[in-house]
Write a structure and sequence with these properties.
Length: 408
Amino acid sequence: MIFWLIAAAGAALVSLVLLRALWRGAQAPVPARTEHDLQVYRDQLAEVEREVAREVLSEADAARVRTEISRRILAADTSRADAVQPGAGPSKLVMGVIALAMIGGSLALYLQLGAPGYGDLALKDRIAFAQELRENRPTQAAAQAGLPPTPGLADLSPEYAALLKQLRETVAKRPDDIQGQTLLAQNEARVGNFVAAATAQSAVVRIKGAEASVEDVAGYAELLVLAAGGYVSPEAEAVLRAVLARDVENGTARYYWGLMLVQTGRPDQAFKMWDGLLRRGPEDAPWIEPILAQIEPIAEMAGVDYTVPEIGVGALRGPSADDIEAAQDMTPAQRMEMIGSMVDGLSERLATQGGPVEDWSRLISSLGVLGQTDRAQAIYDNALEVFAGDPSALDEIFRAGERASLAQ
């Protein structure tokens, strides 16, 4: 209610100022057209007196000239008096229409572009609102229930439909058959039945247990998102968290984590994560194309004047084919030396050129694996200063410090 009172008072004040200016302008004297002529006549009289003083003009002739000029001055003065009259002021109807247009137009514009009922949220309030939105968003089951039914076997070729039906029946009889569940997940996803595909992939992860790879779990998270129509549910978030706990650089998980941040009101954090993925590349990574399709409006929402970078420009140099072939014949000490040289190259680049938080996190983790905890601690402390004020980046640095067993 206070907002509306302030808005109405502001619109009324602006209308009053404009109407007052309009009224004063209408009441202002109209400038006389003869003002210039009057000044010319006065100058002519002064010139006559100078001519008489120099004895160029006789007194009799001067008298006749003075009489003519005076007659013209009187005529011009009379004309000016008639011209200097107050203009006609605007009618009350016109002024009322102007005031109504100002106040009503402002209200209509706000109703169209604004958010009636919502105040201007401070950053702290927006973060709190986003957190509340994230905690209270719909479940996976609710999201799936709101989607149209998935395609049936009737939409497939007879041969493929028969094979898929047989596969479903076989897996139903042997739910712990890892190969059957894997094939079922792949084929259900191929026909767009992502709900069934996610169920089958869940069984794959369950059967493999601790032996389930990061790719297995990431694939399950992706199928959950697809089954919900692109929505990242709390259940999908939990699976993504499990992936990132094992591989913080996993591109699939980081892409969908960024998507979740967009959906829960944190485009600022999503932008940083997706920008890091673009800089890391590679160009043929499956998440590059969807990020490119979305990142510019996300950057605008985050308040960033953004230019899409060259894909992979910030990527770490991985081992070449020659490096891998040479490493097969290396002793463990030689392999560690090769890894150390790569880490040194990354450290040098970050020290001289800087880089995204992903590179800092990777360097800290790598130094921890190499046992160089003192060096890792120094870089960790430096990273905390570089990314101060960026909660998302700091969270990633904290996780890298935990993996490297550093003091925090």
